[in-house]
Amino acid sequence: MKARQIRERVHWLGAVDWDRRLFDSLIPLPDGTSYNAYLVRGSEKTVLLDSVDPPMADVLMFQLESVPHIDYVVAHHAEQDHSGAIPQVLQKYPGAQVVTTPKGKEMLADLLPIPAERFVTVDDGETLSLGDRTLEFIHTPWVHWPETMVTYLPQERILFSCDFFGSHVATTDLYVTDEARVYEAAKRYYAEIMMPFRKIIRKNLDKLEGRAIDLIAPSHGPIYDRPAFIVDAYREWVADAPQNVVVLPYISMHGSTRRMVEYLVSALAERGVTVHQFDLAVTDIGKLAITLVDAATIVIGTPTVHRGPHPSVFYAAHLANALRPKARFASIVGSYGWSSQAVEQIAGLIPNLDVEVLAPVLVKGFPRAADFQALEELAAAIAQKHAELGLA
Ligand code: FEO
Asked: Domain spanning 4-238: which superfamily?
């Protein structure tokens, strides 16, 4: 992909990674991704904002063949999918300096072979004149590492946001053309890496207010030419209020737990509660993460393996604990053969979740009439709790 013009003095550079299916050897990327860099040419100085993932460095270096001089490389974020090709860029432009936050300098020096004298650090709100263009650096920590910042270009009303507002989408569209598709991808991205920092992200959103923004140019996925679309979505995701939603990840080995889950899902649906049911044996963990963004309640369904929950449930509970969703209530349902410590062990896996635990339903063997009645009561309790929050 060649460089593409956004404004007279602003170009998109970077690489579209159509075939990548996993990030951090963990996060599914069903739609691939892109590593967006941007070139801003002021009347006096030229700046490259971010770079690309090292395996695609040749794409960026090809695009830079027609750029004779770069004064600065802005590193919004030290993670290597944006910073990894900076050493090659610095080799091509021996006079260029890396502009980053003080924490960014520390982290980049740890992660990459960049000599200390090549760095310039910028404070929150500091500006850099490029002649007839100015860059304003806004520190936005914890989106999603401690060193992150964004850059505002007031003359063009562009916010370069790096991971903030990004979406893992490989596309030839420079701008968002399919909002439904990008909404899902951006929410997946938020859920997987931003959600643990929901409260500080809310403060960062506040910090951006008051600036006129025509374009948000992230470093993954297409550019937003209707910024309110993604800013409003973020506002909703970081809000404290959950929705009238239950997420129900489960595993069943011989059908007893599945029977209980299906009964509970039906009982909740009858009470007007939206339920997302996930069989952990086959589910896309990213889809599960997306639903955790809004859910008021998490119910885990697990059989007992030896004395504890199924290993797949360990993984899902650990993930939910790490993502720190805004859920207010939790419970556990499942079946066991002779004894179980599933409830105690799962409770120990989710210390980060600030939830009220509603009476679990653990059944010895196949569920019977009294067990279904207990599930009915659990559904009623969840619906009641949601109603008390004004969610129904
Ligand atoms: Fe896209 Fe946190 O790197």
From this structure: Ribonuclease Z/Hydroxyacylglutathione hydrolase-like (3.60.15.10)
